[in-house]
Amino acid sequence: MSPIVLSLITFVFILGGAAVGAILRNTLPDHHLAEDSKDVVRLGAGLVGTMAALVLGLLIASAKSSFDSQSSQVQHLTADLILLDRLLAQYGPEARPSRDLLRRAVDTLVERIWQEKSSDSTHSAPLETIAAGDDAYTRILELSPQNEAQRSVRTRAIEVSTDLARTRLLLFEQADKSIPMPFLTVLVFWLAIIFASYSLFSRLNPTLMAVLFVFALSASAAIFLILEMGQPFAGLMQISSAPLRNALAPL
Fold first, then answer.
1. If you write DSSP's letter for every residue of 170-194 in order, what string do you get?
2. Residues 6+ apart with CB under 8 A from 95
3. Rounded to an integer, what distance in angstroms lies between the CA atom of residue 112 and that of residue 128?
4. Average pLDDT of the chain to the nearest whole number
């Protein structure tokens, strides 16, 4: 389910909590809404609100850290590709087939990471979708240096290729990180309880309804940000694939 849909559902449930609080206010006897009851409910709502605030803060920080980490990995991957291509160019014309395979591998790599042309089979076997990259690595291993300079370039190219493969695997592993649904359900339940407490002891008027609407929208927007940053290769906040796709100029 998309982050927008989940955040809208969260928004509805939070406003539903406020509606439940207003209904209870109109149906409960007056002695159930006495000052001592009000104090207990406010203390409990304060406790739940503190827990919800802590969890939201931790989730936003964790999602932002993961988003930045994967963005950095894409930049690292792009830099490794450019460096590897330059090393192969320095090696000489013998490395041209490897450079050609490297360019073919980039488009497949982008499509796989950003899931632009993916299917269920590609998700279950991510390594098989980048055969050109594996062939390029094999070609580099098969190079036969004729002098010390070529030998040094070949060794460096193998190191960069290994680092590139490691970064690629990390991106595949971290591509689909999302909040567990039970965790999100509990968080939304906490927020609904808080909003129910707001309307339980206050008579709703246009101003209060507008304020509750803005508060609920803000809380659901926080959920949207968390979910959106949890899928950095899709959605409205996705990492751009243009730098990686355009990293290697045509031969």
1. HHHHHS-----HHHHHHHHHHHHHH
2. 88, 89, 139, 140, 143, 157
3. 10
4. 84
